[in-house]
Design goal:
alpha/beta; 16 helices
Length: about 350
Amino acid sequence: MKATQRLHNLGQSIWLDNITRDLLNSGTLQSYIDELSVTGLTSNPTIFDQAIKKSTAYDAAIRQDLSEGKSGETLFFDLALNDLTRAAAMFRPIYERTEGVDGFVSLEVSPLLAYDTQSTLAAATALHAQAAQPNLFIKIPGTKEGLPAIEDATFAGIPVNVTLLFSREQYLAAAEAYLRGIERRIEAGLKPGVASVASVFISRWDGAVAGKVPDALRNRLGIAISGRIYAAYRTLVSSPRWLRALNAGARPQRLLWASTGTKDPTASDILYIQALAAPFTVNTMPENTLKALADHGTIGNIMADDGGDCEDVLKQFANAGIDVDALATKLQIDGAKSFVDSWNELMSVIAAKSDTLRTAAD
């Protein structure tokens, strides 16, 4: 049995952190579903930037959109929703079989809106309506300004993937926003079973402290932070408040491990996959990490409910001069900026390709 199947059997959902039209057209995504236990996927501006830049698979669709007067963001979301609608259809049997727990794809609102509550909510509402897919998450960043949009989107019945979370405190704030949205639905007499995931970014922690801590702490910060967050997650979903919501028909917001590709070439290529195995969670993996897990991966113990030795490890980082609270804030700000940079690059790529295709058509 492949390690991917063992991880799935353990109770963790494996999602692919990638989507391209070539993946869809070639049958590769379907093979990952059939052979590697992939049950969902995520996307972001960087993924689409690379997909459109490096492939001619989108050219015909871009020509069609140009002929209809579309450009810029409108053209991009048309391309993205085409891909994600096709992927959602492929995962729909999983979504139906799991009663809406699994089988999701994700689309992000414009990163330019990360600090604009009302525009984020408006964009999430419009994209959800345009997609018209029950198993499509709208990704909203867990910034201070994003939290009210998460609550209101949840209240409106929009499935949300909360992105750009790094610390326990950021996760708990996102979970609180989701739960408030659910409680408002219960109070209003609406069905409370609106799905959500909270995406915690892992590998960026270790990248941020590389070369700044003793060798004994190398590549241990992301895993320690994950243990702290997982302990908070387990406590939260068993709390009286959550149990009351569950009794009314709600479902817990699942924890999702993101940024789980190993950045350090000297470390195991499945470092974070092995360390973050836990039931009723999601691990969204880059394609190379997924293949590595299937090829030579092993799955050992699952994460400790109480975070194991995470607090002891975090004390060692504190003694080494690392302020994890300040770093979490910086990582979220830097992450939002990197998504904006990728978004601007994506818009430039679309504009350049549009110009090329127009010229070729003349």
